Amino acid sequence: MQALTADQYARLHQLAEAWRHGHLKAAKRDSRFNPRLGADALCFQPHRLEDGRGGLLGALITPVSLSLVLVLDETAVPRSETERLTLSLPSGRYPFMLEFLGEADWWWRCELLADLSDVGSLQEASRLAQQLMERVMTPAAPSP
Prior knowledge:
It is a single chain. With 144 residues, this protein is an alpha+beta fold. It contains two helices and six strands; from the N terminus they run H-E-E-E-E-E-E-H. It has a six-stranded antiparallel sheet. A hairpin with a 4-residue loop joins strand 2 and strand 3.
C-alpha cells in the first residue's frame, strides 16, 4: 500500500472536520448515535477511477455509521454533476452517493454499516475500519 502525502492527510482531516461541522448536530439526534466516536477518515489509499482520474479511497467512521468514501485527488475539484457512482473494487461493486460537506467540499460515500452504537472506543472503530478496507480490497472468493 502506498503511503499518503502530508497534503493528502491534511485534506482528509479537513473533510472529516467539514462532516462534523455539517452533520454532527443531526447525528446527535439519531437513535444510533455513539458518543464514544467522532468523525475520522481512516485507511485511505490511492485509487484510480475508470475514467483515469485519481482519487483516495478509504473508510469514514462517524458516531452513527461506517462508510467507504472516495475523494478526488485535486483539492479544488468542482462539485460533481453525478449524484451516483458505482465503483468496481476487488470484492465487488459498490454504490456511492454524492455527499456535500459545505460550500466547496464533497465526496462520494457508500454506507456499509449503519449502526455503530455498540462500538466501545475510537480504537475499536479504527480496527473495524481496517478490517473493512481489507475485505473490500480482497477479491471475492469464486463461487463453487
